[in-house]
Amino acid sequence: MVVPNQVTLAADIVAPAHQMGIDNRAWDETLQGLIALIPDEPGEATMSLDSLKGNLFDTVALHYSSASQGHSERNSVWAEVKVCRSSAGQAVGSALANIEGITLKLLFNDIEVAETLAWDALRAIVDSPHMHPLCIDHIGPVDRDFEAAKRILCSVLRRTQLTWALESGKLQFRDRISNADLATSEDILSVPTEQTIDDITVTLDIAEQAEWLLRLVHSRFEQNTREHYLRKLVRTCTRDVSTNIASKTAPSTADSAQNATV
After folding, report:
1. Around Cβ 99, how many Cβ atoms within 10 Å?
2. Please, which domain of life does this record's source organism belong to (predicted)?
């Protein structure tokens, strides 16, 4: 299989377990969980270390990009794994590091892939007591990663993916540009099915709930905010209602012709 071999080779070269002080078993489980999210197709995989503290690194980044095969865009998976360690462990360089967080950014040509990802391969790591956020990143509504995040969030709202991460309180969705507005597990579990804007109440379906959650509460780019999105939904609903009324009241072509004959 192309992808596991390339990712494993990159990991063997970088040696994150040794360079970060992670237990080999924990790192292997994490690596296999990340590989399970990557489409098995020709492509390139790279791995790098960051945040050197003392003689150990605190972050490892994995990037996979598919080879171009007639698509204008490539499948891509970015993953960032962070560890935490005791100050004593850092001082002596002992293997006291635990995986603290995993952040992902996903791009797929076939967007439906995002609804059937093999998340369970990461469950043991996410369920560990030291692990906090499993965070899915995007950079706003105009980017392809937003659509992937939205599809994943839709499946979470339907309870068909990542239910265990949601119920553990560890699942997050984040706008990477703002780096502030998070859609947390608590937000997802309590997302309203109705919203009111300008004294107009709008009922949100699953896809609309997901997009509302992913958008920013505040932004200097007003078109990226939740408020702007709700106003857009109101305009769409109003236009659809007006169109339906017009189509029901307008005489048919046949009736018009008959009346003209009479």
Report:
1. 23
2. Eukaryota
pLDDT tens-digit profile of 31-69? 999 999 988 888 888 999 998 888 899 999 999 998 766
**Alpha-carbon radius of gyration of the chain:** 24
Q: Is-contact 16 10, C-beta < 8 A?
A: no
Three-point CA angle 169, 174, 178, nearest 5°: 140
Show Cβ contacts of residue 103 under 8 Å, excluding neighbours closer than 6 positions.
79, 80, 82, 133, 135, 136, 137, 174
What CA–CA distances, in Å, run from 5 to 9, 20, 37, 42? 6, 22, 14, 11
Task: Give me 75's structure tokens.
Answer: 């499948």
Among candidates 48, 85, 74, which has minimal Cα distance to 63?
48
* Count of all residues that appear for the chain in the document: 262
Helices 2-14 and 24-35, axial angle in degrees (round to 10):
150
H or E element in which residue 79 lies: strand 76-84
Encode pLDDT of 2-23 as tens digits: 566 778 778 887 888 889 999 8
Report residues of the chain scoring pLDDT below 50: 1, 89-95, 242, 244-247, 252-262
What's the distance, CA 100 to chain centroid? 18
| Strand partners for 64 | 45, 77
pTM of the shown model: 0.83
Task: Give pLDDT tens digits for 75-86.
Answer: 899 999 999 986
**CB within 8 A of 32, min separation 6: which ones?**
121
